[in-house]
Amino acid sequence: MGIKEIIEDTVTLLKMSKYLLKISLRYPLNFIADFIELSLWVAIFTTAMLLFSSPETTFSGASPALFALWGFVIYVFISDVLWSIGGGLRYDQVTGILEQNFLSPVSEYIYPLARLFRIYVRDIPLILFIPVAFWFFTGEFIARNILLSIYILIISIIGFIGFGYVYAAAIIHMKRSAMVTNIVQFLLMVFGAVFYPFSALPSQTLVISKVILFSYYIDIFRASIIGINPELIERGIYLLGFKLSPFDLELVIVHLLTIIMLVIGLKTYKYSIKLAKKKGTLHTF
Amino acid sequence: MLRVIKAVFKVRWKYTVRYPGWFIMFIILPIVFSVIPIILGWAVAGSPQQAAINFKMNVGTPNYTLFMILGSLIWLVSISIMWDFGMWIREEQEMGTLEQLLLTPVNPIELLASSTVWALFNSSIQFVIALFVAGVLFNFIGVLISPAMILTIIYLILGVLPLTGFALLIGSLIIKMREAEAVIRLLQPGIAFLVGIFYPVTIMPELIRYIALLIPLTVSLQDMRAVLLNISYIFNPQLDLFILLIYCALWPLIGMTTFNYVEKKAKKEGGLSGY
Question: In this complex, is the C-beta atom of A48 within 8 Å of any C-beta atom belonging to chain B?
Answer without folding.
Answer: yes
